[in-house]
Predict the structure.
Amino acid sequence: MHIQPGNSFLGCGFWNPSSPDMKLIRNNFLEFGDEFKNIINTKEFVNNFGSIEGDQLKTGPKGFDKNHKQIELLKYKQFLAVKKFTDKEVLSEDFAKKVNEGFQAMRPFFDYMSEALTTDSNGESLY
């Protein structure tokens, strides 16, 4: 949560993951990309964040099938969920409620990405 006049937002994500982490995320998308899409397409996520943001490759990443059904996810290099607030919203009586709704909407996204980064393809912990 960042509060600053003219620049307040709630954000979550993975900005510039390391190469090993990027590989874990992309390999996870190969098998479970539909699950991730379901999360970022829920009414709650879309109403709060619109869609995920982040830099993307122009083509698919090296070593991945350019025709894979998850190619659009595989192109991402960053995975960010950002909800901006106006100064008026920050000062409103229901601001805490709006922030709480944002946190609740981002939780499945955060949980999915955390699991992708901490488990292998069999669901076993990497740590």
About this structure: The chain is about 50% helix and 10% strand. The first helix runs from residue 19 to 40. The beta strands are 8-14, 79-85.
